[in-house]
Structure prediction request, 78 residues.
Amino acid sequence: MSKESELLEHVARALVDDPSGVVVKEEQDGDFLKLHLQVAEADVGKVIGRGGRIAKAIRALLKVMATRDGTKVNLEID
Prediction:
């Protein structure tokens, strides 16, 4: 599990009401890392935030971490 995946899992567990429902899957495609975040149906809004603000902030954090490692990252919230 990459550092980006661990950060995503930690942040998502802190945001949701049901931390056991958080699942992070990753796919590596060259220097591109695709992260898939799954949370409980009731917690999707908490991870996305009003107007997508929280999702945008999480993506910004992941981008900073990935840039330091010389990779690119993409986050999909399911």
The domain at 3-77 is CATH 3.30.300.20 (GMP Synthetase; Chain A, domain 3). The chain is about 45% helix and 25% strand.
